[in-house]
Amino acid sequence: MPPPPAVEHAMADPESAAPPTAELPAVSIASTSSSSSSSSPADLEPSISRTRIRDILAGGEVLFGRHVVVGGWVRTGRVQGHGEFAFLAVSDGSCLATLQVVVRAAVHHQPLARLTATGTSVLVEGELKRPPADVKRLKETVELSVERVIEIGEVDAAAYPLPKKDITMETLRDLVHLRPRTNIIGAVASIRHQLAYATHRFFDENGFLYVHTPIITTSDCEGAGEMFQVTTLFSQAEKLKEDPVPSETDIDAAKLVVKEKADAVAQLKAAGASSQEVAASVLELREAKENVSILEERLKLKHGIPYEDDGTIAFENDFFKRQAFLTVSGQLQVETYACALSSVYTFGPTFRAENSHTSRHLAEFWMVEPEIAFANLEDDMNCAENYVRYLCKWLLEHCREDIEFIGVKLEEKKKLENIGKLAIERLELVSSTPFVRISYTKAVDILKNVQGHEFDNEVEWGIDLASEHERYLTEVIFKKPVIVYNYPRGIKAFYMRLNDDLKTVAAMDVLVPQVGELIGGSQREERLDVLKHRILDAGLPLEPYEWYLDLRRFGSVKHSGFGLGFERMILFATGIDNIRDVIPFPRYPGRADL
Predict the structure, then answer these.
(1) What is the rounded end-to-end Cα distance, in angstroms, of the chain?
(2) ∠ at Cα 250 (244, 256), nearest 5°?
């Protein structure tokens, strides 16, 4: 069997971050050679070439004397010198650090106190200078002496909900629209961005194509039934209260209009009318026919939710003419592309209507799901291991400061020690250590023979491993990542390939310290007859999966894939213990803010 594309790649060297010398990069995307050479329209406000604080701090003393425009939000501010000048610590999100901005009363002809409230936005222009040799400001290596205040977004300090001091993660969940302004959530956003970029880079380097799979689906990938329904039946029922269903008389009248329009077309053709006249008349006929179709469809509607004679909901009256859901996985759909283009992946949001309030579950979360043709379970494990190691190396290279900062903040909030240090050590361990590979049966035997430790959940063959079991294997037994493979068929999905023992399937889970299961994957069942039986054994109808069975009817091929929970990867990387804090807009039972 031809192997999948090689996935063992040395990480590309990061681009050099040398301090700027001759030119500071400008944020404005309008500042290109083509646009700068042409004059701006008189009725448009000129574009603003803003300089990132990250680039200013990286440049240091090389930039003294340079004039720049800076925009950001005030983290802290104070007025000194009897109201003669204000010191602002400004952040623009480009880095964790702030830039000290000095505004003098002679420059800003309004009370300087209006600039100093935490959360105030400022856009200012001035000169970069060396700070005075003041003991209180030794940490400042460069400051901006403001010569022009361009814009201000004021804040009512008494009403602003984000204090200068730290705020709990729980409270921040109630301020989901403002929490990106905190350093810890900003650091999480940076890590999330880098992980997404590294994901696309890894798969691109290894010859995978990125496929956009649908969010709305008519197939249940997991067969668990915990899916969000997508329907317009409720809105249709509400509309019927205001716009009644047409009568048979209305439809007969509309059909009469169609006959009149058809007669008009015939008369024009018989009279030798111009093609323009005939086309206009045909268009009127087409519109009349469409109106009849709409009325006939609306005639089928009934007040309230429509039901069949057997009491089930009549989904043929719904938008898609059948049941539809928010996807729990893009796997089934992306398999169609793997069975044509060999190596593909999808990366997007997935949804579970699971009424769980734990720190590990969300109703909406993101999954990375590659699929490889001509690949067995071992190929799948190789790809998963190399992908995880690649991500860890990338984070160490690009996000060490963010991870260490999050660790410090978590230590302060939770009164614990070494969270950041342990997070770095985990990444170093996973990025440099081959993963242990053991069968599910062996994992159960190991856990059942543990001495001196009592698990909260039972360990028995045929029962899925709990998080505590997974973490015990990685953190205590092996002290490294573990891949567990060949799970009992009864606890895994129908699409996983049945092994020769008829008791297990070719499935695998990648377990890591801190979170337990990070990846779940399998070799897919490529045998048509076996797959049919597996679908039926799962209590699912064959009809919605006929297209999936076609992949086995026409040129079936061994193929494998896996899914990585993106938010779980961030939990692993940062040491944050609640999944609601690592996704921008968390959705869970009772909460769907914004």
Answers:
(1) 50
(2) 160
pLDDT tens-digit readout, 208-263: 999 999 999 987 766 555 899 999 888 877 776 777 778 888 888 999 999 999 99
Measured CA distances, 12 to 147, 203, 594 (Å) = 43, 13, 38
Closest-CA residue to 565 (of 487, 510, 496, 523)? 510
Biggest alpha carbon distance in the chain? 100
- Residue 137 corresponds to which amino acid? R
CA dist., res. 371 & res. 16, Å (int): 33
Kindly give, in sequence order, each residue whose CB lies less than 8 Å from that of residue 553, ignoring residues fewer than 6 positions away: 528
The CA radius of gyration of the chain, in Å to the nearest whole number, is 31
The CB-side HSE value for 171 (13 A sphere, CA atoms) comes to 9
Query: Could you tell me the pTM of the whole model?
Result: 0.84
**DSSP conformation class of 100:** E
pLDDT digits (tens, 9 = 90+) for 11-41: 444 444 444 444 666 665 444 444 445 677 8
Structure tokens of 372?
């490889």
Q: d(Cα 400, Cα 590) in Å, to the nearest integer? A: 35
DSSP 553-567: HTT---EEEEEEEHH
pLDDT tens track for 292-303: 898 887 777 666
- How many residues in the chain? 594
Q: Which secondary-structure segment (H or E) carries 365? A: strand 364-373
